[in-house]
Fold this protein.
Amino acid sequence: MKKLTWDDIERMALLSLLGAPPIAFMTFDFFFPNVSTPSLEKNLLVVLLLSILAGIPSGLFSRRVDLAIATTFLYVTVGYLFAFVLYSGPYLLYGLDLLLPTFYYLMFFRFTIILLFLFVLGGFMGAVLGVIIRDSIRREETRLTFPERQGR
Amino acid sequence: MVSIRKLREHWFSVTLYVAFSVFFLVSGIVSAMTYSAIVRAHDQIQLVDPSYDAALLDNGSVEISFAITLSNPSRYELRLHTATWTVFVDNSTGTDGGRFTLTVEYTGPTAGVMVEGKSEHIFEHTAVVSDPALLADLRGFINYSASTGSSYTLETIPYAHEFEIIAWIGGFAHDYVRESYLNDLVRLDRHYISEEDS
């Protein structure tokens, strides 16, 4: 098994931070489609397509496929936690009293848990697509750097 | 740190990815701010300064009036769904649940009442009680109260005023069938009942 380098960790952390906002927004929007801007209106196909799009960079910028998959898990986790922060907005910003915190957060979790599967599934698909794009770009670069000689 | 050289190598993909991420970051923050402002509006919007009066008219009828202010310090306008004003007298000797209703006024959605953000709206209602049966009930109440030591007239009877308003906050969608919590989020329900009865 290959070792995880410091460069890999930095790369994963950066990708997790950049991949988290779409996950957070889609989760929040799924719970409050009437107040979010713009709204996906709970369209799961659009959510899956955006998850694929969000997953592409982890495949494109990671050196290894296992790290790309780990990055997918990481940014989904960070994004989901960020969604909880957005959901807590009124109580963090204005200091309003939250009467039933357990119920409040459990309701959010219960309504959005299914999205996590979509995010991970879409993320994997995106990561694989990213790897394919990366390999394609590398092949193209190699071909341009070392053009075929005439007569061979 | 991930070297700048590596980022420069993929500048196009990196720029696209950052733009994609920033777009959703801004959307998420804007949406959360909207949600927070709506929750805060629920806390801020109140019915204040109620006033009510009763006057005896020359023809023996009673004119009952009521006014209350809806204070809306939030940034969202309120679209009135229903407003209901009810006047009744608490009559513990009665058999119809202990009270008899004198008048009910209802304002529906077709009235198109809107209260702009950061403003106030005064709801004013007046009703004349001229039905002989109702006036007989009121006189009966006065006579019974006199036997228990209270001296009332048609003007000083403790009329109870009940006022309820249901409005929608802003122009947010509220026609969800299964997800009623979304309707409740933008639905404002305020209720006032005068002290005499409560």
Remarks:
- Residues 60 and 133 of chain A are 7 Å apart (CA to CA).
